[in-house]
Amino acid sequence: MKAVILALALSCAGAFAPVNKAAVRAPVELEAKKSVADLSEADLKGKKVLIRCDLNVPIKEGVIGDDTRIRASVPTVKYLLDKGAKVAMCSHLGRPKDGPEDKFSLGPVATRMGEQLGKAVKMAPDCIGDEVASIVDGMGDGEALLLENTRFYKEETKNDAAFVEKLAAPFDLFVNDAFGTAHRAHASTEGVTKYLSPSVSGYLLAKELEYLAGAVDEPVRPLAAIVGGSKVSSKITVLESLIKKCDKVIVGGGMTFTFLKAQGKAVGTSLVEDDFIQTAKDAMKLAEEKGCELIFPNEILVADAFDANANTQVVSSDAIPDGWMGLDNGPAATKMIQDKLADCKTVIWNGPMGVFEMDAFAKGTFAICDTLKELTEKGAITIIGGGDSVAAVEKAGLADAMSHISTGGGASLELLEGKVLPGVAALDEA
């Protein structure tokens, strides 16, 4: 039965993103949880379903800048509607400070969601209350509704019991398809499961767990991780977790220089977190103990200023001159990384190799994009988890060439760290 559930989940999720069939394994954290694919038409027809989506999209003056998250929610919503459910979507948008604000209204999202579903999506004036309950009660089978921003209430993030009860009151069952907020125990992610049964995962959540949890807990080896970004402090817990599980870990980006300084090398004016020198030493020791090959760039593109028009030169990683800062990998480092990845069957990438927002320092990051595309074509499982890495592959036009692009930044990191996600843990046992 689980194999059938997984196949359904991946085929429906595939309507949003391509699936590398070689990656299909039982989803580690989800295998003991109920999925939306467990629910038949008999279970859903005429039922009032509350689904938590991640519809936190950029909106400026009523115009949606990127509808990726909306499109990612479509497969699960469509499945529920096709089975005759009365579907009410809920989500947060932005960080409203004190109650409702027009700029944080989900109104534009309702319109775009309707376009994606090919049917009208009603917009509720609120997410709780008698008026919302009346609208839900008046819905026909197969109709869709979007509740207003749950974070118009501070009680949402506090998981306030009274608010939770009001949010859940009009509904029969709950589906969580918001991986991006599954690491938060909020009213709309964890609280409502106490009142609605069944509470199950959606296809997007299932797919995220299949790839991210599966990659580190039941990997197709050799398993490599590429961990970049600016700071050791923000990545050390995930780095340590990956060192324990991976065959190879490649370190890149600004965090490289804290490690190089920990090795006694000169780093010029490169970004260094002096408070984390010992942490870097401990990570290197851990890698040695675990038999994980910890790899650092052997060549650095340095500049005399943090400026797109700065003077640049390529130097060895142990010869960074005074007054110069490392802002990208050099060609030899890129070649070395490509060689190290050549035999890998699973690769997780979190964090860029340099300041890719500036063209002068983007080559190292975009070379990784090209390399992962080639590996995917050869059958490797490639997983992009983290906002900057996702932005890089999208800017390179290669997002569709990867096995999986994660929709959750913080949730991705916490799952890779081995943490339990409250929004997943709260779902019904299978």
Automatic annotation (TrEMBL):
<feature type="binding site">
    <location>
        <position position="151"/>
    </location>
    <ligand>
        <name>(2R)-3-phosphoglycerate</name>
    </ligand>
</feature>
<feature type="binding site">
    <location>
        <begin position="92"/>
        <end position="95"/>
    </location>
    <ligand>
        <name>substrate</name>
    </ligand>
</feature>
<dbReference type="GO" id="GO:0005829">
    <property type="term" value="C:cytosol"/>
</dbReference>
<dbReference type="Pfam" id="PF00162">
    <property type="entry name" value="PGK"/>
</dbReference>
<dbReference type="InterPro" id="IPR036043">
    <property type="entry name" value="Phosphoglycerate_kinase_sf"/>
</dbReference>
<dbReference type="InterPro" id="IPR015824">
    <property type="entry name" value="Phosphoglycerate_kinase_N"/>
</dbReference>
<dbReference type="InterPro" id="IPR015911">
    <property type="entry name" value="Phosphoglycerate_kinase_CS"/>
</dbReference>
<feature type="binding site">
    <location>
        <position position="357"/>
    </location>
    <ligand>
        <name>ATP</name>
    </ligand>
</feature>
<feature type="binding site">
    <location>
        <position position="326"/>
    </location>
    <ligand>
        <name>ATP</name>
    </ligand>
</feature>
<comment type="pathway">
    <text>Carbohydrate biosynthesis; Calvin cycle.</text>
</comment>
<keyword id="KW-0547">Nucleotide-binding</keyword>
<feature type="signal peptide">
    <location>
        <begin position="1"/>
        <end position="15"/>
    </location>
</feature>
<dbReference type="GO" id="GO:0009507">
    <property type="term" value="C:chloroplast"/>
</dbReference>
<dbReference type="GO" id="GO:0006096">
    <property type="term" value="P:glycolytic process"/>
</dbReference>
<feature type="binding site">
    <location>
        <begin position="54"/>
        <end position="56"/>
    </location>
    <ligand>
        <name>substrate</name>
    </ligand>
</feature>
<keyword id="KW-0460">Magnesium</keyword>
<dbReference type="GO" id="GO:0005524">
    <property type="term" value="F:ATP binding"/>
</dbReference>
<dbReference type="GO" id="GO:0004618">
    <property type="term" value="F:phosphoglycerate kinase activity"/>
</dbReference>
<feature type="binding site">
    <location>
        <begin position="386"/>
        <end position="389"/>
    </location>
    <ligand>
        <name>ATP</name>
    </ligand>
</feature>
<comment type="pathway">
    <text>Carbohydrate degradation; glycolysis; pyruvate from D-glyceraldehyde 3-phosphate: step 2/5.</text>
</comment>
<keyword id="KW-0808">Transferase</keyword>
<dbReference type="GO" id="GO:0043531">
    <property type="term" value="F:ADP binding"/>
</dbReference>
<feature type="binding site">
    <location>
        <position position="184"/>
    </location>
    <ligand>
        <name>(2R)-3-phosphoglycerate</name>
    </ligand>
</feature>
<protein>
    <recommendedName>
        <fullName>Phosphoglycerate kinase</fullName>
        <ecNumber>2.7.2.3</ecNumber>
    </recommendedName>
</protein>
<keyword id="KW-0067">ATP-binding</keyword>
<feature type="binding site">
    <location>
        <position position="69"/>
    </location>
    <ligand>
        <name>(2R)-3-phosphoglycerate</name>
    </ligand>
</feature>
<keyword id="KW-0732">Signal</keyword>
<keyword id="KW-0418">Kinase</keyword>
<comment type="subunit">
    <text>Monomer.</text>
</comment>
<comment type="similarity">
    <text>Belongs to the phosphoglycerate kinase family.</text>
</comment>
<dbReference type="GO" id="GO:0006094">
    <property type="term" value="P:gluconeogenesis"/>
</dbReference>
<feature type="binding site">
    <location>
        <position position="235"/>
    </location>
    <ligand>
        <name>ATP</name>
    </ligand>
</feature>
<dbReference type="InterPro" id="IPR001576">
    <property type="entry name" value="Phosphoglycerate_kinase"/>
</dbReference>
